């Protein structure tokens, strides 16, 4: 985004100067950063009068996190989340930009709808809300949406997705991939073959789904779509992004496709990096999600693939649901779980603490690479002089027991409640303005 004026624009200009003292700069050694007029103006060892000093001794500074996959529910389901509450959750989680999925009501399938989301996000001003456009009208899977008009709108839509549903018609997928090349777009696919895993499928297909009597969702239902889509990406010479990869088989396909030079990228969610299908044994609908939680063998392969770059990014798939949609028998409850506030902690716990990833790699997987995939200028930039001051400060040594009741989200379907995780986000800056300071969201 080049035009980042928002309702807080006036106060941005007059914002205080911040001196961030002694942060570990994405693992590249300790240093100070001076933040002035929205930009990093100095780096190194700094003294500055009249600056608000932020003591970052022992904290890691990362470029502001970018989430490729957030459900904000506005318009249509403001009882589950609003752009304001979702933005607050994002700021609390260290994010400075989120891609807002199109499965709202109405669906984001026109230029006007996309611009409305952009404007609502700007009015709130806590995080850059970048709309994702639907691939097909009303997510109907029948007719392409106004992809070009959305791309040329003020919202400059680049990521298109029918997420929640799979673009299962191969011919339509092919046409969408051809179309988006004109403006450097990408299709983010919810990979679920509807014949192999229909809308009732809700538990990884295996011994446990049989024992629990829940309809099985086999890994192959994801893998056949991933395989098909990488071949379509190769054929069209266009870009496909695989949303919420959940199986070792999908990782194998991705590894092959990348070795061929096919333009495919992929994301993994925090929950698929840590939670396994055994969580379903109590029939707690909090753990009902699409795609389902998988066995430990898959989780281990997902971690390896994220560490070696086969999976490019971590994305939350933050999917808030109101109590009355979640509190049902498992088979009837809504799919989805919260993710924005604990995403970085989960990555710190399973990847950094386990020695699988450095903080510099986390900065790549949660900021630079998702910003590049989404074509978001001004985000995912290095913490260097002249760059926009989009950053977050995290205490890597903190050990925190998650309390779902303290969430900024309107919903409470938080799979991390009661879980002990590492790392704590202390502050987030969006173009030099703190959106989170001392762990308090700055509304
Ligand atoms: N992940 C989910 O289980 N649910 C998402 C849709 C989706 O990401 O497929 C939702 O919108 O609730
Ligand atoms: Zn999905
Ligand atoms: Zn989703």
From TrEMBL:
Binding-site positions, Zn(2+) 2: 163, 190, 244
GO MF annotations, alphabetized: allantoinase activity; dihydroorotase activity; zinc ion binding
Catalysed reactions listed for this entry: (S)-dihydroorotate + H2O = N-carbamoyl-L-aspartate + H(+)
Active site: 317
Domain of life: Bacteria
Entry GO terms, CC: cytoplasm
Pathway in which this enzyme or protein is active: Pyrimidine metabolism; UMP biosynthesis via de novo pathway; (S)-dihydroorotate from bicarbonate: step 3/3
Keyword Metal-binding attributed: yes
Pfam families: DHOase
Similarity annotation: Belongs to the metallo-dependent hydrolases superfamily. DHOase family. Class I DHOase subfamily.
Designated name of the protein: Dihydroorotase
Organism the protein comes from: Rudaeicoccus suwonensis
Gene designation: pyrC
